[in-house]
Write a structure and sequence with these properties.
The complex is a heterodimer of chains A (119) and B (136). By secondary structure, chain A is an alpha+beta fold. Chain A is built from 3 helices and 4 strands, in the order βαββαβα. By secondary structure, chain B is mainly α. Helix content of chain B is 33%, strand content 0%. Chain B is elongated. Classes of the chains: A alpha+beta (119), B mainly alpha (136).
């Protein structure tokens, strides 16, 4: 199953309410057959720009990142569900790519180019 | 007179020193044929890697993963006044990393991690990587 990352910005709320929102988000994921890998709190910060969502303009928000494995079919349903949630300001689902090996970075590339040119 | 000059010519013709050659170590070796020790090449150059080789050229982000969540790193490559991404001739990054930074900045902007028109005030005092001189 491909690996996705859900980066979600929640409304600036008290701790129990934030916990409730995260709980129902993760439960939605479980219902659709996703395997949650990790849930990270990236902190409550001031938003870089004011976001108007669900009839109100927000300046602060809580950033959370959920790493999960799921079937590609559920991604659109999940985004639809999150858009309807009043407490979620901006949901984004990204695909996690396999990271390139570090050996391919600049220095080795330049050397390869040199050897190729000298031939 | 003629005798003197002819005498001088004869003297010049004759070798100044004795005919037997000076016995150097190499000469002795060449004369004797039963030598079996290998020839010592003392003056041949030793094979080694070039000691004056310059280190491979790398860009500043070589072996550093660029992430859209790392707003501080990405903010170093945008203008503090307009928030625009600097070009390759300013940042000095290699092609691959410039593309990664550019993509990460755009991703962060759309996801609500980074501002579009300005640089986050807490990152303005960060050290200058790009070395661009702004009109003050």
């Amino acid at each position: 199953m491909p690996r996705y990352e859900l980066c979600v910005i929640l409304k600036a709320m008290q701790r129990p309410e934030t916990a409730a929102v995260l709980r129902r988000t993760v439960e939605t994921l479980f219902e659709r057959g996703a395997v949650v890998r990790s849930l990270e709190n990236l902190g409550e910060r001031r938003l870089p720009y004011k976001i108007s969502k669900h009839d109100s303009r927000h300046t602060h928000g809580g950033y959370f990142s959920i790493d999960f494995h799921a079937s590609p079919k559920i991604v659109s349903e999940l985004l639809d569900h999150l858009e309807r949630d009043i407490d979620v300001l901006r949901p984004t689902v990204l695909k996690k790519d396999i990271e390139l090996s570090k050996a391919q970075c600049c220095g080795t590339q330049a050397e390869k180019a040199k050897t190729a040119a000298s031939r | 007179m003629f005798a003197l000059s002819s005498c001088r010519l004869l003297l010049q013709a004759l070798p100044k020193q004795s005919i037997t050659p000076r016995a150097t170590a190499q000469c002795i070796r060449s004369l004797t044929t039963s030598q079996q020790e290998p020839l010592k090449k003392d003056d041949m150059p030793i094979k080694m890697e070039n000691p004056f080789k310059s280190p491979p050229k790398t860009c500043i982000l070589c072996n550093i993963t660029v992430d859209f969540k790392n707003v501080q790193l990405l903010s170093q490559f945008i203008s503090p006044h307009t928030g625009r991404i600097y070009g390759r001739h300013i940042t000095g990054l290699c092609g691959r990393k410039q593309k990664e930074v550019s993509k990460a900045v755009k991703k962060a902007r759309s996801m609500g991690f980074m501002s579009v028109t300005l640089k986050d005030p807490q990152f303005i005092k960060d050290p200058d990587i790009c070395g661009i001189k702004h009109f003050e």
